[in-house]
Amino acid sequence: MSTLDIRGLHVSVETESGPKEILRGVDLTVNSGETHALMGPNGSGKSTLAYSIAGHPKYSVTAGSVTFDGEDVLEMSVDERARAGMFLAMQYPVEVPGVSVSNFLRTAKTAIDGESPKLRTWVKDVKGAMEQLSIDSDFAERDLNTGFSGGEKKRHEILQLELLQPSIAVLDETDSGLDIDALRIVADGVNRFTANGDRGVVLITHYTRILRYIKPDFVHVFVDGRIAAEGGPELAEQLENEGYVNFAKASA
């Protein structure tokens, strides 16, 4: 059982005119076995929360705490956070020419586990995961994210998720740019990841369409750097019907 606990989190970024506060006191607890949908309009701070949890140097935590199984996440390096069991699927994955997908995946698995996976078993695991995500076999030899379509990038993120098996995963707009077939494939991958009930997910999205395939236990509405409302799946239905306008007015 793992727990990601965020309390009173304030985060700023540096701009030409000085620091700008993006997160203004975020409280969120995610336990293993739970799927949380974090929804909100553009610019509300959803991605800032994801990158702050992951340790991106652009974002400065000015107040509050983030703990993972009681340990201070903010004192951990980025790689220590990954080894502890946290995972971030980025909205815009970085291209890394010269590094193949297969080398990246095996290196990541080795770094997290502290030892190289047995090659025979690893090849079988990678092949099986790729087949489930409808990824061609030659994909493994392509340069990481270089020239990938939007759907390929998102499926590769879920491939990482299935192979690295973190305890808590933050998926930042995993549905972005996906057609209906790719959306179903990605959603099926997330559902496989959570199927045994001992892993947690924070699913960041603008839209409710992915929630037709991934059923959240909790829905949080993010507005102006804060969580403005919380509820169950019915809250997503309310957003589908009403949009974010009423929540923005209430938080003003």
Q: Using only CA atoms, what is the Rg?
A: 18 Å
Structural class: alpha/beta
In the predicted model, the low-confidence regions spanning at least 5 consecutive residues are none
Total number of distinct structural domains? 1
The percent range for helix content is 25-40%
Beta-strand segment tally: 12
Named at the architecture level, the CATH assignment is 3-Layer(aba) Sandwich
The named CATH superfamily: P-loop containing nucleotide triphosphate hydrolases
- Beta fraction of the residues? 25-35%
- In the sheet with the most strands, the strands line up as 6-9-10-3-11-12
In the CATH hierarchy, what is the class?
Answer: Alpha Beta
- Number of separate helices: 8
Largest sheet: 6 strands, mixed
Q: CA-to-CA gap between the ends?
A: 37 Å
What integer is the average pLDDT? 91
Task: Describe this structure as you would to a colleague.
With 252 residues, the protein is an alpha/beta fold. The protein has helices spanning 46-54, 78-84, 101-113, 119-132, 150-164, 180-194, 233-242, 245-251, and strands spanning 3-15, 18-31, 35-39, 59-68, 71-72, 86-89, 96-100, 143-144, 168-172, 200-205, 218-223, 226-231. The chain has a single domain (3-251), classed as 3-Layer(aba) Sandwich (Rossmann fold). It is built from 8 helices and 12 strands. α5 (150-164) packs parallel to α6. The longest helix is centred in the middle third of the chain and has 15 residues, at 150-164. The protein is globular and about 50 Å long. The chain starts with a strand and ends with a helix.
